[in-house]
Design goal:
The protein has about 750 residues and is α+β, with helices and mostly antiparallel strands. The protein has 18 helices and 34 strands. Strand 9 and strand 10 form a beta hairpin.
């Protein structure tokens, strides 16, 4: 690598480094999925559109799962796999070499200390931000998202130093445990007490037979810790966490709040915010050791002498309908003043918030500005970047008064009398309801599109007929589900993939794409989807569609028209009732909705606006979310029927080994004996005093008129019909389908 890089000039290497700015990918749920991600050519830094995890925030404030995840961390504790790429740097010159590569005083770090720092190019601009841990005298860990680029930059600058670096990501998993209860929970499962562990320190410890390193750090703005351990100990660690945390409201985090609302409220950055800026412009001047030499120092000193001309600031908007895209222009006094880098909803501060890079001569904190996005001019006010706990008392464990929005200890009993939820639920069960159920949509085209999707998903995609839809799962190399999707075959070489996690999906596609002739692009912004569900859904749609769909088969998609407006109609749904989905251009959404209302009035149509579309309706039917499937393989989830064993796909070898060993875990249902029981997701399931599983879902079913839940359990110890204890409540294990097990309802 160094020999190859030596062919290039410093200026060319700097241009190469700028390509890192286009590589921001969400590695939260994907762990090691991005190792082979490829860099694409990018425009000049001035033209870069900054990326962020959340592109649309209008509906996020009402996302119950994200809200619960966020509030669990703020009020109790949450845990999640936050494995970054990890580079081990060792050798007698490791300290001095890292001191040269980063702006912080790495040479002054003590063993067991960690530092957040940045790496610069020759122009003094940030090309990576990392955490450096000093593990031993001459051994360091560097935590990054961009290990290939980091290694290449290291090799380009290694001269005569005696230093070695190797990736250890594959042998090191990191779980973040964050929230005010994190210390209490960890002290129940760790061999040695960590109360004395200082902020940004790392120490050896153990959980039963598993060796771990515990770092006191995090990316949430709360008291928090990170556990580093070998992948073979994952189940042991997770089980210990679940058991210790059950009494303290510990929740497994499955949404993107770990990179959106939680860190953004606290003012924490991603490379999408700071790439192309220098540390002074990002407010990171305190991290620079000016008394040493480092790559980019000369340029940074010149920038310091000139004065800060750009700054990364915060902003808020009171417009609840605003959907601000990263890269949107910021206007001050009618003139362009900067660009938005991120926009999200803060569940604790209860407002839409964002970051923007602005020209300091054009705008400053406190100014009223306008942001141009999606054809609108949205009023906003520039603020400091820290919206939550500016004094950082929370990360020190000083909780003070309870934060806003305490974590609900129940998700079910109070819903029994929730009239709006019940009415929405019963409308779908008895007549017809509709709602905007737009997922992220990836269009995949090309001569090899079918074969490529066949490689990525377990179902036979290339064998699907035109107009057919397939529910399928995507696995990692361990055979575990990392996404469940619907794939539609629209034309010979054209497919749609409907997902909730499009950034991770694209990243995984990038990793596994080889020489296939395939193109994929996000078309979410050009496609709105309405779900029309209930026994009268067919009657309503036949009144409004140009072509009668009475004979359209289940899990198919067909082109049609509404008042000469082109639409796609899929016969599918997530409610357990006869149902359809309408795909249209966003510009036509209002007309589609108006037509639904007029054609459905005779049948009592109702627009659904409560969370029954992801709670009581699908859960009664046994339908799952990714929060149920995390860490499962398709066999454990009851999806063995979806696997095409006659083709190759990512994770097949591991899944075949799992099949040979036999299914030892299953996702089952349960019904508590106490009808008023409040059971948190993540609660331990025990039988005879021994742990046998974990709750993944709990809600109230308005049709079955009882509290119901799902649990992932060890079926070598318990099975359907057995009595279990969930938290402190006795329950009976059941099949996962509580409603219409014979599927009569989904047919006309």
């Amino acid at each position: 690598m160094a020999e190859e890089l030596s062919k290039y000039t410093t200026q060319e290497l700097e241009r190469f480094s700028r390509k890192l700015l286009d590589l921001l990918m969400d590695a939260v749920r994907m762990g090691t999925h991005l190792a082979a991600a490829k860099s694409a050519d990018v425009p000049d830094p001035e033209d870069i559109v900054y990326e962020a995890t959340a592109r649309e925030v209008v509906s996020s404030k009402d996302n119950i799962h994200a809200k619960l995840d966020h509030e669990a961390v703020r009020n109790a504790a949450g845990y999640y796999d936050f494995t970054h790429k990890l580079l081990e740097v060792s050798g007698m010159d490791a300290r001095n070499f890292l001191n040269k590569m980063f702006v912080a005083p790495i040479s002054k770090m003590r063993t067991g200390q960690a530092k957040y720092t940045t790496m610069l190019n020759g122009n003094g601009q940030i090309i990576d931000d990392v955490i450096v841990f000093r593990i031993k005298e001459d051994t360091y860990w560097v935590s990054t998202l961009y290990i290939r680029e980091l290694t290449a930059w290291f090799e380009a600058h290694q001269t005569c130093e005696e230093v070695q670096f190797r990736e250890i990501t594959q042998t090191t998993v990191m779980y973040a445990v964050q929230g005010p209860a994190s210390l209490t929970i960890l002290n129940q499962l760790l061999k040695e007490d960590i109360k004395s562990l200082g902020f940004f320190q790392i120490r050896d410890n153990a959980v039963k037979t598993a060796s771990v390193k515990v770092a006191r750090s995090g990316y949430t703005g709360e008291l928090g810790y990170e556990l580093y351990f070998h992948p073979k100990d994952r189940d042991l660690i997770e089980t210990a966490l679940e058991q210790a945390g059950a009494a303290h409201g510990l929740r497994k985090i499955t949404t993107d709040v770990i990179t959106t609302s939680l860190p953004r409220e606290k003012g924490y950055v991603l490379m999408s915010d700071i790439g192309g800026l220098n540390p002074l412009e990002c407010g990171l001047g305190r991290s620079i050791d000016w008394n040493k030499e480092f790559v980019g120092k000369d340029a940074l000193e010149k920038a310091k002498a000139r004065g800060i001309q750009k700054a990364l600031v915060g902003f808020t908007t009171e417009d609840s309908t605003a959907a601000i895209e990263p890269g949107a222009e910021v206007l001050a006094n009618g003139r362009k003043a900067g660009k938005v880098t991120v926009f999200t909803y803060g569940y604790t501060v209860k407002k839409s918030i964002g970051f923007a890079v602005v020209e300091t001569g054009q705008a400053r904190i406190g100014d009223q500005v306008f942001i141009k996005s999606n054809g609108r001019s949205i009023p906003a006010r520039l603020t400091e970047r820290t919206f939550y706990d500016p004094g950082s008392k929370r990360v020190q464990g000083e909780t003070g008064s309870a934060p806003v929005n305490p974590v609900p200890k129940k998700q079910t009993a109070s819903q029994k009398t929730a009239s709006d939820r019940r009415l929405d639920h019963e409308t779908v069960r008895n007549t017809v309801g509709y709602y905007d159920f737009t997922h992220k949509l990836l269009e995949v085209t090309g001569a090899d599109a079918g074969d490529f999707l066949d490689k990525i998903f377990v179902a036979s995609i290339a064998g699907a007929e035109i107009g057919q839809a397939k529910y399928t799962t995507m696995l990692n190399e361990c055979g575990q589900i990392i996404d469940d999707v619907i794939v539609f075959r629209l034309e010979e070489d054209r497919y749609w993939v409907s997902t909730l996690y499009i950034h991770e999906l694209i990243s995984w596609f990038d990793v596994h794409r080889e020489n296939e002739s395939v193109v994929y692009k996000d078309i979410t912004k050009t496609t709105t989807m309405y779900a029309v569900q209930g026994p009268h859904s067919l009657k309503v749609l036949n009144r409004m569609l140009e072509t009668d769909i009475t004979d359209q088969k289940y899990f198919t998609i067909a082109h049609n028209h509404v008042r000469q407006i082109p639409v796609w109609i899929a016969r599918s749904g997530y409610t357990g009732e006869l149902g359809y989905e309408i795909y249209c251009a966003p510009a036509n959404a209002a007309l589609i909705e108006e037509t639904l209302e007029s054609c459905g009035r005779e049948y009592g149509i109702r627009k659904i606006d409560t969370d029954v579309i992801v709670t009581s309706l699908p859960r009664e039917k046994g339908f799952v979310l990714m929060s149920d499937l995390e860490g499962c393989n398709p066999l454990e989830a009851g999806f063995g029927w979806s696997v095409d064993w006659n083709k190759d796909f990512v994770g097949k070898a591991a899944l075949e080994r799992a099949r040979a060993k036999g299914v030892r875990r299953s996702l089952l249902g349960f019904i508590p004996e106490d009808r008023s029981a409040e059971i948190p997701v993540g609660a331990a399931v025990t039988a005879g005093g021994s742990p046998v599983g974990t709750v993944t879902m709990y809600t109230y079913g308005y049709t079955v008129e009882k509290n119901i839940g799902f649990a992932l359990v060890d079926t070598t110890k318990v099975n359907v019909g057995d009595t279990i204890t969930v938290g402190n409540t006795s329950a009976v294990l059941t099949e996962r389908i509580f409603y219409d097990p014979d599927n009569h309802r989904i047919h006309p």
